[in-house]
Design a protein that fits this description.
206 residues; Helicase, Ruva Protein, domain 3; two-stranded antiparallel ribbon; homodimer
């Protein structure tokens, strides 16, 4: 795609480096910005630079935060001895949005995936293992995605801490609320039968 | 969507102002930038500000350009008396990429569309009409999209200049090269029959 202007071309090329944004979309976005008031572009540029320069990783749980210790970890009302292990900050947000979980998180920053060249040393596994070994944790809840990589990561962490006294659990897999049995894949349906829960228990929580 | 950081939230909100980018996509893009070297964010922010501040509209044809007069208009090899009327800078790029057209362009900046509140005064129609009235033009080629709005715009311009001696043409509509007859819509097929061209002519240009 030949552009009529070098300045435009530079902006389009930089924009097209973002994932899922091709040259045509990048051009559409840049042309949109040109039509908007100049402040919008300025605010966007400043916000992006600010986020890249000033956003911190919480030194305790590794989630993104404005401060050294994130608002969840520094909240005295949260149960510091229950830790939910997640891949990514987006999982933290998803779980926070449920309003159900009152413990802390531990963000690994990914899953063990040899095919992508990601080994345990690139993830925040050591700090998690240390928390368990220092007996700071009562329960560890694994909430990684149920893929081969997720299971491998769970198992790797399990092997590191199996000597320690800590309750381990994983989030329940099953048929989503509102979904119909006939359209559910066999693995999920099989698991949800295998891990069936007492009926009284299911009533109580509804 | 509740985010764990105000800085992050600001960047996501600014990003989500772009067309076709929702909050989730915006978050994905910002998280991607955080994982990349800081220079990438800086280059993107600078390129966007640069494009917004320094990109000019060519004073002759209204296309986007680094200079007051764009490279097409200032090119002595281009035929200055043949002008192709287009909606948008993207149309200029599309036609330039064919390498067929050697005249100049005139970018209207949109189409007359009462439903969107766009009237003739918001488009660069007057400067085009003046070019014709000052007898600077031999041929005007209409290359607007063949919609109700495109046809209205064509007709509006035609009414303004019909007293002047200028050759008017529109780009050919028909079945795209490689398309099959049976899958073509009736209007296009009908038009391509109506505007059939002499066989010898079609051979000469292949």
């Amino acid at each position: 795609m030949e552009l009529s202007s070098k300045i435009l071309e530079k902006a389009v090329n930089e924009m097209a480096l973002l994932p899922g944004i091709g040259k045509r979309t990048a051009l559409r976005l840049v042309l949109h910005l040109i039509k908007q008031p100049a402040e919008q572009t300025q605010f966007l540029a400043e916000a992006l630079q600010n986020v890249r320069q000033n956003l911190k990783f919480c030194t305790n749980c590794n989630t993104l935060s404005d401060y050294e210790i994130c608002e969840i970890c520094s909240n005295p009302k949260r149960d510091k001895r229950t830790i939910c292990v997640v891949e990514d900050i987006r999982d933290v947000m998803a779980i926070e949005n449920t309003g159900i979980f009152k413990g802390l998180y531990h963000v690994l920053g990914g899953k063990i995936s040899p095919i992508d060249g990601i080994g345990p040393s690139q993830l925040n596994i050591n700090s998690l293992v240390n928390k368990v070994k220092n007996e700071e944790v009562d329960e560890l809840i694994f909430a990684l995605s149920s893929t081969m990589e997720g299971d491998t990561t769970n198992f790797y962490i399990y092997k590191q801490i199996q000597q320690n006294e800590v309750k381990l659990s994983t989030i329940a897999r099953g048929i989503a609320i509102g979904d119909e049995l006939e359209y559910t894949d066999e693995v999920t349906l099989g698991r949800s039968l295998m891990h069936r829960i007492p009926f009284e228990h299911s009533i109580k929580n509804n």
